[in-house]
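Write out this protein's structure.
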Amino acid sequence: MPEITEPSRFLGRLRAGELTLMMGIRSARTPDAVRIARATGHHAVMIDLEHSAMLAATAYDIGLMPLVRIPEREYGMIGRLLDGGACGIIAPRVEDAGQAAAIARACRFAPRGQRSQLAMVPQLGLRPAPAAELNPGLDGSTVVVILLETPAGLANAGEIAALDGVDMLAVGANDLTAELGVPGRFGDPRVAEAAGAAARACRRHGKLLMIGGVADLDLLGTLTALGACPLYLTGTDSDLLYAGSLARARQFTEWFAAR
């Protein structure tokens, strides 16, 4: 059976400290968005919710790491997304080790988990493969990211990072600042305290940490320096479309005014 290598390369980049860019896909429904991500130097895409297995399969085929962010505590859809070509799951608003363990179990085959058995996956061109080969190959190449967005989740970061089957933790700064009563104030010292505590938990257990939701690159750099890996979400397709449209409209407005 051919080796499923892309997720391993993805984690390897992060462990080596290499810059890794990820684009969020929220609105797009065709593979064009994935191809644009690849053409603009991204290394991964985060497909929000269950939008399209086709996008995940396309991303894998052209060398991008396809991660899917599931709805909060929607464990039942994980198997369908992985079967459809996703190579990783981002689970939002996890608050304790029990919730994180349920996510990890849904992503792995028995005995490590409870993912339903199948014989064909897009990563292998839908060629049938025996369970004895397919299961360990998929288990070893499926990335589980636990998103901590509340004080409760961050207080349990150590127990969550210790779990078998969890590969990465991520601090969701947007929701965290809202939970702390300071929405959007990413410079609040409690954000840095949370990031530092999560980084220490990840180091103790050999896991990776990502900082998400911070657009100020100077501040993001400060938070990342506390111990996070260089995985950065550059934006979602909707906000990138807005920024590009705004820039193009201004270009035409200035051109017309100068005539």
